[in-house]
Each structure stands twice: as C-alpha cells, then as structure tokens.
Amino acid sequence: METTDCIVIGAGVVGLAVASKLAATGREVLVLEAENAIGTQTSARNSEVVHAGIYYPPASLKAAFCVSGRKALYHYCTDRGVPFSRCGKLIVATENDNISDLDDILKTGQANGVTDLIKLDQPQVREMAPALNAAAALWSPSTGIVDSHQLMLSLLGDLQRHGGALVLNSGVKSMSSHGGKLQVTVDDDVETTIQAHTVVNCAGLGAVPVANHTNGLPASAIPRVDYAKGSYFAYSGKVPFDCLVYPVPSPGGLGIHLTLDQAGQARFGPDVEWVEEIDYTVDQNSRIKFVKSIQAYWPDLEPLRLHASYSGIRIKTFAKNADYHDFLISGPKDHGVPGLINLFGIESPSLTSCLAIADYVRAKLVV
C-alpha cells in the first residue's frame, strides 16, 4: 500500500489552492484528479469574474471568503503575473420598481465590508454607459475578471515547487478510516490504495459521490445537492461596454449578465435551469430567452450575433426552495472521521474565494 501525508481530491481551482497552501507548510501533498486535465468542470465553466462580495448574507462563509479572497486573489495575480482586469461592474435596475433592490444590495455589500460601492442615478448611468437602459445602478469598482486557467497553472506550479504532486485520471472509488488514518482507493488502471493522515475532499461536482463512498461517514454529514445548470452565449463583434453589466439578481443566480474575457470579447450568462443530471449541452433555442433578458438592459443588442457557447453547473447544497445556499466545509469535529475535511457546495464565488478557502482549510488542519 502506498502512503503519503495528505491527499487532496480534485484539481479544480479550489483543490489546487488548498493543495498549494498545504504543501507550502511542508506537508507531503498528493492531488488526485479524475479527469485527464486540471480544472475541466466548474473551474472551467464559469464567468471568470472576481466578485466583490456584494450579494451574500453577512456572517455567511461566502461573504467572508469572497471579500478576503478577492483581496488575496488580486495580490496573488499581481505577484505571479496571472492575467486579470479590475474592470468594475454595473448592477442595473431597468425599472423604477427595481431601485429598492439596489438599495438592499448596497446595504448587504456594505455590511460585508465592501466599502467602495456607488449608487448612480439615471443621468450618471447614461454618462458612464450610454447604451444601457437603466433607471439606476450600483457601481462596483472592485469587481473584475481573471484568467482562470492561468490561475490554476500558477497554483499547480506553486504546489510542485513545494514538492507536491498531481496525478490525473485517478478518480476516488472509495475511502475508509483505519487506525486514525484514511485509506483511499483510486479507480485507475490497477485500482491503487493509498493511505494518508489527511484527506481534503475538493472534488466539486464529485464531492458528494466521494462522501457517499466513504465508510464511517454518517449520512447526516452528507448534504443533498441540487444542480443549477447555467448556459452561456458568446457575442460576435464588439460591445459598447468596458465593464461588466449585471441585472438585479434572479432566483438561483445573478441573472443573465454581460462579462468580458481578457481580450474584451463579450459573453452572456448564465441562465438557471434545474437539472437532475450533469449535462453540458447548450440549447440553441435558449437564445430567445437570452435576447429578451439582455435587451431589457441593452436594447441595441443584435440577436443574430449571439451564439451558444458553453454551460456549467452550480452546486446547491440544500433544497431548491431554500433561501440561501452557503459553502459547507466540515471536519472531524463535525462528522467524526479523523483527518477528513469535506468541501460541499463550492460554487460561485469559489473562484474569487479559492485562496481564502485554502487558508480556512489549512487552519482547520493545524494541530
């Protein structure tokens, strides 16, 4: 049986951040990834937005990790040369009836420690973005975008420089606790078993399935998950915006918003579709819905320039009708299995929060 000090399951942005932080403390770290490359699921199928920390309920993990993680992420990207842009974001109320929603968002953001939000009236919005239809808006200068793939490559480099290793095509089949250590069976060509003092389950969409195959983990410690599928449409040609544009949030997500990549190319999404299984197919007919939603804040959108691009899955850890879905990070004190930390519901703003989540996990493992 092979042995190591610490196993991190999942090589998405959060798994790589956790692994690199643990390796930096001198621990022997092995990352197991089921796919044939890093970050092929949630980490590669999102808006690549660096969130300011505006929407999340105060005292939630999402609020705390987003605000501290955003600051840490900008510093990290600057230090490592990871491409990013602090381009800012406009949250738009297209009708007078939505202005009170902006006031609520402003209060929540301020309660979370986001101190640079500015409310704009209609003339101020028109001066900033003449093409927008807006009764009012919130300006968030701390919001930005980041190249998520380059970020993951940088984190992987950090891991490897500190002696850690990544093994691809190595999905976890089962896990059990023996004598205070964890035995992880890997579904590779020869079904390898590895023993470790510590296992951090950062498997993203696979985190609950891994937990379900962990002997000794109480069923009460494993949440039920719902999948909110979000599709994105790309836009051919230039858009008259140099910042991100978001409508007032909708149930299950932040609405079909406009984001930009590092080259200034626009994409729109995600919408919200509750699904039972993971399916990344984008319905071309959704364009009708996208056009209607986008034209509410950008009337001059040319519909024929929109084309289906990609989709992603947001993991909701409680019932679909729950008021809020927070990150769920549980350790031995929560579930009773020595050395095991499970990360569930790691959806947006997990990209922004990855370094803060890693610090939190590392602190949980300090003896």
Distance between the termini: 26 Å
Q: How much beta, percentage-wise?
A: 25-35%
Question: Kindly state the mean pLDDT as a whole number?
Answer: 94
Overall number of domains: 2
Shape: elongated
Secondary structure layout:
Layout: E1 2-9, H1 13-24, E2 29-32, E3 49-50, H2 61-80, E4 84-85, E5 89-93, H3 99-111, E6 118-121, H4 122-128, E7 136-140, E8 144-146, H5 148-161, E9 165-167, E10 171-178, E11 181-187, E12 192-201, H6 207-212, E13 226-235, E14 244-247, E15 257-260, E16 266-269, E17 273-275, H7 287-297, E18 306-316, E19 328-330, H8 332-335, E20 340-344, H9 350-365
Parallel strand pairs: 1-2, 1-12, 2-9, 5-14, 12-20
Antiparallel strand pairs: 3-8, 4-8, 5-7, 6-7, 10-11, 11-12, 13-16, 13-17, 13-18, 15-16, 19-20
Question: Descriptors for this entry?
Answer:
single chain, 367 residues, alpha+beta, FAD/NAD(P)-binding domain, D-Amino Acid Oxidase, Chain A, domain 2, 2 domains, eight-stranded mixed beta sheet, five-stranded antiparallel beta sheet, 9 helices, 29% strand, elongated
